Amino acid sequence: MTLSSKQEIQKLYEKLIDAWNRRDADGMAELFGEEGVQIGFDGSIATGREEILSHLAPIFDSHPTAPYITKIKEICFLGADVAFLRAIAGMVPPGESDIEPAVNAHQTLVAVKKDDVWYIELFQNTPAQFHGRPELVEEMTKELRESL
Q1: Can you spell out the DSSP letters for 79-135?
Q2: What pLDDT digit, counting tens, does each position of 110-123 carry?
Q3: What pLDDT digit, counting tens, does each position of 76-128 carry?
Q4: First to last CA, the chain
Q5: pTM over 0.90
Q6: Which of 2, 22, 23, 84 has a C-alpha 20 to 30 A away from that of 56?
Q7: DSSP conformational letter for 50
């Protein structure tokens, strides 16, 4: 795939993270395909733009969500119109200046190009707790701190 194709996927992911960081449920939902799926940090699943919007809006309305600090680890193409992105993410709690390691996550995005536009078909945010391996938590946190 061309560099510009990878840049398009990177930009799609960055728009998603930016919408989260701005607490913009509409902005996040519009990036998904009609039947796109979002799997949240707590395991909740929302399917389709309307359900994603109705899931996110109350979260942003009632919780002081922390912004993400992210690092893309991989972008690959499964075909001309299907891409896979893998990233790591940390969060800086409101009023704090450092990443909270307990909420580090692996993020996975699958995008599909329809009518020349890339849409998210799957976004999954999985806790990176590394049970029994605190050195891996610290390693990920250190890597994310480089983006602060």
Answers
A1: ETTEEEEEEEEEE--TT-SS--GGG-EEEEEEEEEETTEEEEEEEEEEE---TT-HH
A2: 999 999 999 999 99
A3: 999 999 999 999 999 999 999 999 999 999 999 999 999 999 999 999 999 99
A4: 30
A5: yes
A6: 84
A7: H
